[in-house]
Design brief:
It is a single chain. The chain is globular. The protein has a four-stranded mixed sheet with strand order 1-2-4-3. The protein is an alpha/beta fold. The longest helix is centred in the last third of the chain and has 34 residues. The N terminus is likely disordered. Helix 3 crosses helix 5, helix 5 runs antiparallel to helix 7 and helix 7 packs across helix 8. The N and C termini lie far apart (40 Å). The protein has one domain.
């Protein structure tokens, strides 16, 4: 009976993903406790999520139903960016593609020049998590050599730019276009990020107007 309920909840999550892919909701409401509780029943058994951030994380996960079986652990860490995410080395070597373990490290630095997750508006935070989950889906569809080739892409700025803009586009196509727009806009115009970091974001990732253009295009097709 428990498995049947889980399957139905995953299917419900998939329907939400399909609708949002077309609709592109401007804002996502984390106050819908019934929906959040339903998502927890699907995703929480193999996810380690800080209670403080579970609302936006579960909502972002609802756009990626294929990650329900993936083990994802969120950790607090002092890092140079807001958060980073990657598969563990051991799971890449020994686990099946669908059973890999992923680590998401959330910035706890108090430096003025580092964007803290706690300063990010809710809608933008969902877009940020959605971008990272798009990475996981990309990794999930590749064998170990495919994942390693992705990591090699980071050596070249040109390759990294192509890769990250592809991930941004995939995030938009999932239905999280406005959330990604809000994240990009916040970083470039409202955050305490350094000029160097903002230049990096403009160079490597889609800018707000580029994101809006893709959203508009998807809504008219």
């Amino acid at each position: 009976m428990k498995n049947i309920i889980t399957i139905l909840l995953v299917f419900f999550s998939y329907l939400c993903f399909s609708q949002n892919k077309i609709e592109q909701k401007r804002n996502v409401d984390v106050r819908d406790s019934i929906f959040i509780d339903s998502l927890k029943k699907v995703y929480c058994y193999n996810k380690k999520i800080p209670l403080k951030y579970e609302g936006p994380i579960y909502l972002a996960l609802s756009y990626f139903p294929e990650l329900d079986s993936s083990k994802i652990v969120f950790k607090r860490a002092r890092i140079k960016t807001t958060l980073n995410a990657r598969p563990t080395v051991t799971s890449l070597i020994f686990n099946k593609k669908t059973k890999r373990k992923y680590i998401v490290r959330i910035n706890t630095s108090i430096k003025d020049s580092v964007i803290s997750i706690d300063s990010i508006p809710l809608n933008a935070m969902i877009g940020l998590y959605g971008h990272e989950f798009s990475h996981f889906v990309d990794y999930r569809n590749k064998n170990i050599f495919g994942v390693l080739s992705r990591l090699i892409d980071y050596v070249s700025k040109k390759s990294k730019e192509k890769f990250e803009k592809e991930i941004d586009t995939n995030t938009i196509n999932r239905g999280l276009g406005w959330q990604l727009y809000d994240w990009s806009y916040y970083v470039l115009y409202n955050s305490n990020g350094t000029k160097k970091y903002k230049y990096f974001k403009r160079r490597i990732y889609l800018e707000p107007e580029e994101i809006k253009k893709i959203i508009t295009s998807s809504n008219t097709n």
